[in-house]
Amino acid sequence: MFGLRRALLISALVATTACRSKGATNPEDLVVRTVTLDAAAMCPATPAECWGWFTQDIHLWWDHTFSESPHALVLDARVGGSFYESFDGKGNGAEHARVIYAQAPEMLRLDGPLGLSGLSVHLVHELRFEAVAGGGTRVQVRTQMTGAVDDEVVGAVRGVWQHFLVERFAPYAEAQAAGEPP
């Protein structure tokens, strides 16, 4: 944790210095901020089952894409794997994030902007799949972001993870656990 905080601070200082050296002397020109957000949902199955539902066939519940009808939406949940959207069969698309840590079925860490591609922000998403006493799994995401992070960006990221976990993934997992078709 200390290493991450130090890296974020160094990144912020480098960005501030680079902008100032290019003539951005007005404080409104650059605001570097670091924010941590948490969201969670319950999954009515084991961590291994929830992990599988989260990482396989993600297109069945993930509904924020750049393309109106993507050719493919893939989360390769291995270290170095990619969470990407293919627009067509020609190699056009967008990488939403890269897998930087995977320990199935307990933790998945993604480094990437998800839908904020093109903005001056850096996001790391840590997903934990924790068994709950009495059954089920708590799926928790912690997102740490740094860069040009204003209140609008914070609200968007908070709302999107709430949407994905509570409104999309949890009902999908409940249907899967009940044996219902997707």
In short:
This protein has 182 residues and is of the alpha+beta class. It contains three helices and seven strands.
List keywords for this structure.
alpha+beta; 2 domains; 7 strands; 32% strand; disordered N terminus
Can you put this structure into words, describing what you see?
- The chain is of the alpha+beta class and about 180 residues long.
- It folds into 2 domains: about 1-25; about 30-175, 2-Layer Sandwich (Alpha-D-Glucose-1,6-Bisphosphate, Chain A, domain 4).
- It contains 3 helices and 7 strands; from the N terminus they run H-E-H-E-E-E-E-E-E-H.
- It has helices at about 1-20, 45-55, 150-175, and strands spanning about 35-45, 70-75, 80-85, 95-105, 105-110, 120-130, 135-145.
- Strands 1-7-6-5-4-3-2 form a 7-stranded antiparallel beta sheet, sandwiched between helices.
- The radius of gyration is 18 Å and the shape is globular.
- The N and C termini lie far apart (about 40 Å).
- Mean pLDDT is about 85; it is low at about 1-25.
Structural class: alpha+beta
Total beta-strand segments? 7
Based on CA inertia axes, which overall geometry fits? globular
* Poorly predicted sequence stretches spanning 5 or more consecutive residues: 1-25
Q: What about the largest sheet?
A: 7 strands, antiparallel
In total, how many domains does the architecture comprise? Answer: 2
Helical residue percent band:
25-40%
Itemize the secondary structure elements and their pairings:
Elements: H1 2-21, E1 33-43, H2 47-55, E2 72-75, E3 82-86, E4 93-103, E5 107-111, E6 121-131, E7 137-147, H3 151-177
Antiparallel strand pairs: 1-7, 2-3, 3-4, 4-5, 5-6, 6-7
